[in-house]
Design brief:
487 residues, alpha/beta, TIM Barrel, nine-stranded mixed beta sheet, seven-stranded parallel beta sheet, 30% helix, 19% strand, binds zinc ion
Length: 487
Amino acid sequence: MAAYDLVIREAKVATAADIFTCDIGVKGGKIAALGHDLPKGEEEIAAKGRIVTPGGIDGHIHLSQDVGAGAELADDFTSGTLSAACGGTTTIIPFAYQPRGQSLRAAVRDYHTKSDGKSFIDYAFHLIITDPTTTVMGQELPALIADGYTSFKLYMTYDPIKLNDRQIVEILSLARREQAMTMIHAENTDVIAWLTDILEGSGRIAPKFHGVSRPTIQEGEATHRAISFSELLEVPILIVHVSSQEAVTEIRRAQDRGLRIFAETCPQYLFLTADDMDPKDGHGAACVCSPPPRDKATQEVLWNAIGNGTFSIISSDHSPFALKGTRGKFAFGRNAPFSKIPNGVPGVETRMPLIMSEGVLKGRITLQQYVALTATNVAKIYGLSHRKGSVVVGHDADLVIWDTATERKVAQSMLHHATDYTPYEGMTVSAWPDVVTSRGEVVVKGGEPAAHAKQGRGEFLRCERPEGALPRKGVQGIEARIAAMAP
Ligand SMILES: [Zn+2]
């Protein structure tokens, strides 16, 4: 009997800390040994000189999510997770969304029904809280956190789901008490509504005006507000999908003052600009997302903020709406005003190769930074680092063997998502995942689904209480200060 189920030979292994050449021995789905001249494996892969990274963890992806009447996401847990795997992502954390008036527990059950038996790779859930009733706050949320749903997203904008400042503060108080991670979509809803009325009321309805309706200054304001609440309560938060200089400045200033503020950006802000919402082919709706893509100068600001550690993670915010048919981008008509275009771009399959190619191979970030941004930090921030996000003995054998020898053009035809376009069509990349393993099983080979790519093999992961969600030692929030006051 072979000593290992799988041995990957002479790999150039990258972790968030180091790069080293060794064999990787896999047994029972786990990394069992890192060393030289390991005994034979049942299966052997020669990887001499090739980069091997931990499988990507995508901490921001929307699948099978209820997006309201009229429209629907193109990807469910089948197509979405196959697409993720083919792009080198082996763990996803999509959202269980609570529609207003519904219990949070019921929402979680609902998303388990949507995902059970469907996924090709492992997955956890963030919660989206839209209705923090006394039952949600007093019973459901604390119980769900204890059950392994230790992170949740709050929205400062979007009418059907936004929370007001008091609700946000109350949830942050709970997050502090329960050691959960709060993700915040930071935009100023009233400013956006007012500008949208001005634009659409004067006939400025084309997709490009979506960008005008969400100026960077309102993102900066909302980011500042979210950070202020975090400081008031002394509880860490993560600002999702940061797109602007203004937001980066607020985050950096807070971090420089010692506050525990985490931040995420996404490929759409690094590779697209506002011009992509106004292309010659008239498909501006394809790149409408929120916050919107900005300009070339902002792309450099974001790369710098990735390089200097302001951003902890890069996620896809995969929100796929089809261009064809009547349930996607044009659910409200081909000429619907921009405020009626479903927000979002696909990107779960392109995130890992785009950042490897444009970030690492073009010298903007190191390979170790890449691993941290796409896997290790994501695992730490969301409570999965007990088994995901690094190449260490005992971790799940979720690995990507990279092809960095071939140049290719990104094309819709090579992707596995269920939507009908990629915003990165025609972009030249010099990296693509060649072999992807999930718990030691080869699920992708040559960029295509392989023998072990079986629907339903993916397991649900319970998240631990994230280390990063701990308040700073010795710093009290407003509640502790009040509790110390004599009545
Ligand atoms: Zn968002």
